[in-house]
Design brief:
- The N and C termini lie far apart (55 Å).
- By secondary structure, the protein is of the alpha+beta class.
- Helix 5 runs parallel beside helix 11, helix 6 crosses helix 11 and helix 8 packs across helix 11.
- The chain folds into two domains: 120 residues, Phosphorylase Kinase, domain 1 (2-Layer Sandwich), CATH 3.30.200.20; 229 residues, Aminoglycoside 3'-phosphotransferase, Chain: A, domain 2 (Alpha-Beta Complex).
- Helices cover 41% and strands 11% of the residues.
- It is built from twelve helices and ten strands.
- It has a six-stranded antiparallel sheet, sandwiched between helices.
- 36% of the residues are buried.
Amino acid sequence: MSEPEDAGAVRAEDAFDVAAVARWLERQAAAQQRSQRAPDLRGLSGLPEVRQFAGGASNLTYLLSYPQRELVLRRPPAGSKARSAHDMGREFTIQRQLKPVYDFVPEMVAFCHDPAVIGSDFYLMERLEGAVLRRDLPLGVVLEPGQARRLCTDVLDRLLELHAVDAQAAGLGALGRGDGYVARQVQGWSTRYVAAKTADVGGFEPVIAWLDARQPADLGTCVIHNDYRLDNMVLSAPRPGWLAQEQPAVVGILDWEMATLGDPLMDLGGALAYWVQADDDEVFQILRRQPTHLPGMLTRSEVVEYYAARTGLSMPAADWIFYEVFGLFRLAVIAQQIYYRHFHGQTTNEAFSQLHHAVRYLEQRCRGLIAAAG
C-alpha cells in the first residue's frame, strides 16, 4: 500500500483510544459473521497503526493501517461548538445512500454512536487510493496547461453529475427542507458568524445586510456537496510523477459533512470561494489552498461559463455576484468558527492561530465586490 504524503503522527490533543476502536470493530465483525450481513469487516483484527491526516480543519481524519487493509476514521474535534456541523451519523448515511448512484463516494464500513468507545460518534470507511492536491503540487510533479484545463473540466463534470442525482431515488429526500434554501443560508450563516465573533474581527454588518437584500429565489433543489474543492478530491495516481505522464482524473470525493439538498449555484459559489486564480492579489494568494493559480487552470469566470453552458443557464456577471459574495462570506464564517475554537483554548493547533487575519481580508474582499457591483 502506498504511503499517504499528508498523514503523520497523531497530534496529542486529537489522540483517541485506538484499542477501544479495535475492540469495537472486532465485536462488529463477530456480529456480522453471525448474521452474514454487509459491509465487509474482514481483516480487522489486532491493533492498527494510526496516523492523522493533516488536511481539513473541521472534522478529524485518521488512517488506520491493518496488515491486510486500510481504513479511514472520521470523528468530530474536541470542544466542537456547533454540533450540527459535526454530525457523524448524517455524514455516514449520506455517503452510504449516495454510493450506489454516485460512484465517487468512498465505501462506508461502520458507524459508532456509542460515546463510551472514544467519547464521540465516529465512522470508518475504505481508504481511496490516489493523490490529493493541496496548496502546491508535490516536489517534482508537473501539470501541463492542457492537463490543468482538462482536470478543471473533469472536476466540474463530477459536480454536474452530483447535481443531477435523483435525491428521492437515492433515499436522500429527507435531507431537504423545501423552498427557501437561499434565504435559510443567508440567515443561518449570518447567525453563525455573530455567535462565533471575537473582538479581533469585524462585524460584517454591511455584507450581511447586502446579502439579505439581494438574495435571489432558489434556482432549484438538488444534492449539493457544500464543500466542493480540489483538496477534498482524490485523483488517480498510478505511479510517482503521474501528472507528468498522463491525465489526472477524479476518482473520489471526500468530506461530505455539509452535503444537503439545496440550490446548485450556492454549491458552485461556495466552491469558487476557494478558487484563487493567477491574477488575484497577494493576500488572496497567501490564503490559497489548491493549485488553481497554475497555467491552464480555468478562471472563476470560465468555471461559471462552463457550468452555465452545460446546464443551459443564463448567468450574467450581475446575477452571479450574489453567489460570489455569499461564497466568500460563508468561507469567512467557517474560518471564524475554527478560529473561535483556538481563541477560546479548545484547540492548540497553531495552524488556526492566524485565521482572524483571513476573516478580516475576506470581509474587505466582499465589500470590494459589493462596491464594484454598484
